[in-house]
Batch of 2 targets.
Target 1
Amino acid sequence: MRTHFCGALNKDNIGQVVEICGWVNRRRDHGGVIFLDVRDKRGIAQVVINPNNTDFALAERIRNEFVLKVNGSVIARGQGLTNPKLPSGEIEIIAQHLQILNPSKPVPFQIDAADTSEEIRLKYRYLDLRNNAMQKRLKVRSKVTHYMRAFMDKHDFLDIETPFLTKATPEGARDYLVPSRTHLGEFFALPQSPQLFKQLLMMSGFERYYQIVRCFRDEDLRADRQPEFTQLDVEASFMNEKEIMALMEMMIRGLFKSVVGVDLGDKFPTISYAQAMEKYGTDCPDMRIPLEIISIDELLTNIEFRVFSEPAQNPKSRVAAIKVPGGAHISRKQIDNYTKFVGIYGAKGLAYIKINKDGPASPILKFLGAEASQNIIDKVDAKTGDIIFFGADKVKIVNESLANLREKLAQDLDLFNQDWAPIWVVDFPLFEVNNNNTLNTIHHPFTAPRVGIDELEKNPTTALSHAYDLVINGSEVGGGSIRIHQADMQQKILKLLGIDETEAQDKFGFLLNALEYGCPPHGGMAFGLDRLVMLITNSTSIRDVIAFPKTQTAACLLTDAPTQVPKKILRELNLEVRLPKKD
RNA sequence: GGAGCGGUAGCUCAGUUGGUUAGAGUGCCUGCCUGUCACGCAGGAUGUCGCGGGUUCGAACCCCGUCCGCUCCGCCA
């Protein structure tokens, strides 16, 4: 149907007779001569229709987004007529023959407009996807998945599909449910991840498995969270933590090099979970930011100022500081904004000390006293022109507010000192303690502890796990662990989680049974494909790297899903819809 | 469940202290135009001011409720 792509035409094609197909990006009708910018997946070329053309009358009817086939010869543009903004700007096509393959109604928004609201873009997603930025991002996504498949295949991993219609899991995120017609009153769940299936594949002896697979979690959405998202899911037998991490690191490094030409360096640094929480207040620190959180509890246990001394004395609380070099110029108004900002995370205030030329200045100086103030300034090594921010509260509140403040300060003051900063986070605790004193796994219930059963029994809360996360620029792009491969250990973990033997058999019986038939040591990792592509394409929203995403209320503006279904279909499933009463 | 921001022409937005006929740019339509590339010039058409109530002589504007979009908290093993 065509001989060339619009966007691929250049000086080399001068003199050739070509046939192109595409959409009218813009028309410029001069009455005598008509210019059409014709767009295909490769780009744009200018088509010229002269008044003596037999199809001139046809050309006058052409509007934006009409689909055309154009026959013509490629000529060099005259002097002063070139367009440096277009890769094809040195040439144009003198049309000989025009064909309208399909007209178009006036489109609701200009395809190349950058300011169309997201609501309109999502409603007409098929038009929005014609936009060059969206085309580019989805091309990157395709390149990423292609690289992953090639890498995994090269390293002897088998692509094996796992079920979408599967068993509801008691823990973790809310499941999406699918009613069963053949088992009335019973439901499938869509997988939150293929975790147990990939472990079973290890027990089946495949040794190396991967899958680029959709996962489903019925939780509230965020700028980087969709209810259905894609993972590169990986599992291997007879590989230890170090070996898996090294292989996955090789893949990520090669992927960045191959897809965007970025060199991530030879060896990613590693930080322990405890260190990450101490220095950055989060388990996914953005290492591009040269700011650290510094604990100052021990300087403040004996002062009068109870806002600081009480949390300093309480082991469940923390007093910590962030020093911002050169930050003393931050205005009172801006500090008020930051105070409001940390309030989101539960902080009751945001104390600060500015180091001015004439000495420290702060509303809390008189409460701290000269000695404590100086101790703090010495400890964080503050110089004239710096500002120190403080957090003093429960550990969780201090960590979350200062971690987020650190990132906000970096954005506002442009403190990033490198483009890419990958880091492995390791030595995660196995459990976290809930408010009601029950235990929750930090990774998932199948993660192997670093201790034996007896030690685990004695001190479950201090046990570390064989889990590891890969964080790039503060974004958790992947995580994994060595799994439990002994039935008794698996049973012990479930028990510690408050799942008794009956329930364990009911929910995980198939896994517990399988573990008893010669399960190899195994482990793996999963990467969030969407977040990885977000990073690589520098996108601020996960919706920008998904062709047909959901809105914040988990709806599709294009198809209008979800919708009610006919009563007849519900009857077949023996389901009845009861909406909450409204008063 | 909660906090914040937004919803006015096809699109992007303005709209003063509540005041009589709701605007701009762009797109669309018509006419003119042979070198533009966000073409230009002239003219024209286009409104459920998200929706429902209330206050008022009078509401795009104030109040209450509700829906939708975005960001965040909770939630996301």
Target 2
Amino acid sequence: MPEELSEAKANATCAIADVWEVLGRRWTLHILKNLSTRNVIRFNELKRALDGISSTVLAGRLLELEREGLVTKKIYPEVPPRVEYSMTPQARELEVIIKDLARWANKWRRPDGMKTAAIAPQKK
Amino acid sequence: MPEELSEAKANATCAIADVWEVLGRRWTLHILKNLSTRNVIRFNELKRALDGISSTVLAGRLLELEREGLVTKKIYPEVPPRVEYSMTPQARELEVIIKDLARWANKWRRPDGMKTAAIAPQKK
DNA sequence: CGGTATCCTAGCTGATACTG
DNA sequence: CAGTATCAGCTAGGATACCG
């Protein structure tokens, strides 16, 4: 009777809604991707990896992800300061789904248009 | 040998990027949800179902979805005009993944904050 | 009915500082 | 190093009006 599967009138997307809002934002997916390849990563390290993102935005994205329970930050009271970000188990599970999505995307990749330039994050 | 699974440096999200841009936009998920419950649906019918969306935006979203190959429109040269929208097989496959996502979202539904209030029990 | 054409605004995004 | 504060630009989204 879990209606996650059989709902017909209520909105199944409700629960997704807020996560979706975060995931849909710029850079978020790329941040997650970078996190997924390493266990932990530091702020500027991540910033360099993304190259093009500003501190402002990166900090914002990370905060959102943290609030959604997808990322945890660990602060080391040192000087110079060190902060390590990592994915939560929740995010690890999401990772799997995103890979399904990636597989799906590759499978149906537009054979004609080819508008999906290999790298291009999605600027502008 | 398909590295959709094992990639470690390239961006797996690349292929997703443009679909993501569409899926991440407002209303899109809801449109898809409505389409998924019915085989075909007409413009204003959909508009009523979403209630709150403007013609401008709905038309835009539908066009985007069509371009992504997720939706097809069928125009009947009648008067008054009738246009039916439906999901493509590609979208049907995506539907499965989105349900996985919904399941994931429900599973990890914030037990504490409860900011994701299904129907918002408390205010603000 | 099923859209387009216009216009307007909130807010995301980014650049540029500046701190602990 | 790891951010915040501030300001500016652009654009997605919505309201409104109109047409085939």
